[in-house]
Amino acid sequence: ALTVIEVGAGAGHLGSAFRRFAPEARYIGIVSSDADVQQARDHLTEVVHGSVATRETWSTLDHRMGGELADAVVVGHALRDLDQAGAVLQALRARTRPGGVCVLCVDNPSHWSRIEQLLKGGWSDVMSGPLGAGAAALASLNGISTALKDAGWEMVDTSARPREPEKADQATRT
Hints:
Layout: E1 3-7, H1 13-21, E2 26-31, H2 37-43, E3 46-49, H3 55-65, E4 70-75, H4 85-94, E5 96-104, H5 112-119, H6 123-127, H7 133-137, H8 141-150, H9 165-173
Parallel strand pairs: 1-2, 1-4, 2-3, 4-5
């Protein structure tokens, strides 16, 4: 059976959807929010409650894994607030079998909507929230590629989620 680790699993909705297609999968979610833990437990096979910035969380995950390596890791936007995003990617690589995959989702600071807000003077909307070193390291395709390579991953594909293509086209014409 497949084993998946999701960092930033939230309430477990992605894992729940995945398990509909692979009900035999072992899906372990790392959840930092107290509010999401119970919902995640309802959707996932296992939940580790804590932050990937702490040794205690990794120790708990290792205990649950019992020496088994994951087939895949999924990292939502959980790295953007961390100072040590590279260390987290390395820790995940060490817990993933050779040939395993990492699905990494990151914010796109150069998305047309953010640039449009900046051009209109909407600095507070765009610049709000913490910008840890993790977010800075992952703020460009080159940075993402370097962070993954340094952690032992190979980037094989990258794509952006198209959002409102008509508005993007309009914003780039003005």
